[in-house]
């Protein structure tokens, strides 16, 4: 049995249209069939799906339109409905529920929104729903756009702590030269480290029929971001039979970009590099649970709060003696935590009128400092 993995699958416009001007139902159904089998095996799947603009053109019977931003946003608005309708109907054939998630760059750069999106995606994954993500082109401006779904998928992979990012394209992977013009070009099966020479191999951006915004260069950018965050990335051809199952089962297909650090180490580095916005003081019992059992921080063990911070803020966790024990991402604001001091988890909703979960800081969002017994 293959180890259960969480993976992000990015599908570009050229893949979903199969090289035509309209969405290919046959191609989409084949992708759904493969995803459904992996879903049944217990793998956790997140889609990042392009194709809204192409779908919009299809709905409007392929009109000749100008290339202005409002026109593209109009097409995206029309097409996103059709795109999600198709995904919903196709996955329903396998009794799988999907959800729509539209994101902009601001959802990743703003801590509170980042945490809200992450919590939503975590809940969807936990309930075996497949999120289908796209950039919110209808409202996105130049200042808040990610720009392409390759890089969006890398941001999503980091957001959900994915084991694997799969970028499906119309090419077999990264080659030593452009295989469309150089018959001597050979596939590069493994990239240990992405440097300037790898970017040069990618060349410029190219898409078919003017429908997409990516190309091999954006896939290298996405792989660079994802591997630096601890996610192994694979670029492979969508046209290969049973591509998803083969990749999840470890077959050497396409180009694999090796993760530079582990997912846990990635989060640890990020937390330790951020300046804490405040601190939470905890009692000896909570301190022992954190240091010995790697537990989450619960409200019942909180003694006090130092400084003001919002939900999603980076905070230090201090022992009753004021010694740093850990650093983590707070699920609640400082004002909310003050109301929850010493409160049991099941009482949070009655105290606040709502809840973001039983933990003040979840263990997955916490990095412990090393210290000897009795030091704190």
Description of the structure:
The protein is α/β, with parallel strands linked by helices. The protein folds into 2 domains: 6-267, Acetylglutamate kinase-like (Carbamate kinase), CATH 3.40.1160.10; 274-368, Roll (Archaeosine Trna-guanine Transglycosylase, Chain: A, domain 4), CATH 2.30.130.10. It is 38% helix and 19% strand. It is built from 14 helices and 15 strands. An 8-stranded mixed beta sheet has the order 3-4-2-1-5-7-8-6, with helices on both faces. The protein has a 5-stranded mixed beta sheet with strand order 11-9-12-13-15, sandwiched between helices. A two-stranded antiparallel ribbon has the order 10-14. Helix 3 crosses helix 4 (69-92) and helix 7 (149-159) runs parallel beside helix 9. The longest helix is centred in the first third of the chain and has 24 residues, at 69-92. The radius of gyration is 23 Å and the shape is globular. The two termini are 44 Å apart. The model is unreliable at 204-213 (pLDDT under 50).
């Amino acid at each position: 049995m293959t180890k259960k993995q969480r993976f992000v699958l990015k599908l570009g416009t050229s893949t979903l249209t199969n090289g035509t001007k309209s969405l290919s139902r046959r191609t989409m159904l084949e992708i759904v069939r493969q995803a459904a089998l992996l879903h049944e095996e217990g793998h956790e799947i997140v889609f990042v799906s392009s194709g809204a603009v192409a779908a919009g053109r299809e709905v409007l019977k392929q009109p000749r339109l100008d290339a202005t931003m409002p026109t593209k946003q109009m097409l995206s608005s029309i097409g996103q409905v059709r795109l999600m309708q198709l995904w919903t109907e196709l996955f329903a054939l396998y009794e799988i529920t999907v959800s729509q998630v539209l994101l902009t760059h601001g959802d990743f750069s703003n801590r509170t929104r980042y945490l809200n999106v992450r919590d939503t995606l975590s809940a969807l994954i936990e309930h075996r729903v497949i999120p289908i993500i796209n950039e919110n082109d209808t409202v996105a401006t130049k200042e808040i756009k990610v720009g392409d779904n390759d890089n969006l998928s890398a941001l999503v992979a980091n957001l959900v702590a994915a084991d694997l990012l799969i970028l499906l394209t119309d090419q077999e992977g990264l080659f030593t030269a452009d295989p469309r013009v150089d018959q001597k070009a050979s596939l590069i099966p493994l990239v240990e480290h992405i440097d300037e020479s790898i970017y040069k191999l990618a060349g410029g951006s190219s898409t078919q029929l003017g429908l997409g915004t990516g190309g091999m260069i954006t896939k290298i950018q996405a792989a660079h971001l994802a591997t630096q965050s601890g996610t192994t990335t694979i670029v492979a051809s969508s046209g290969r039979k049973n591509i998803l199952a083969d990749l999840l089962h470890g077959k050497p297909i396409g180009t694999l970009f090796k993760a530079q650090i582990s997912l846990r180490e990635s989060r640890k580095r990020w937390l330790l590099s951020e300046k804490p916005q405040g601190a939470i003081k905890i009692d000896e019992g909570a301190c022992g649970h954190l240091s010995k059992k790697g537990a989450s921080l619960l409200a019942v063990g909180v003694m006090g709060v130092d400084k003001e911070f919002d939900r999603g803020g980076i905070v230090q966790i201090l022992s009753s003696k004021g010694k740093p024990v850990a650093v983590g991402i707070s699920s609640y604001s400082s004002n909310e935590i003050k109301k929850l001091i010493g409160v049991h988890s099941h009482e949070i909703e009655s105290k606040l009128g709502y809840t973001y979960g039983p933990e003040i800081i979840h263990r997955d969002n916490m990095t412990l400092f090393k210290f000897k017994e009795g030091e704190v």
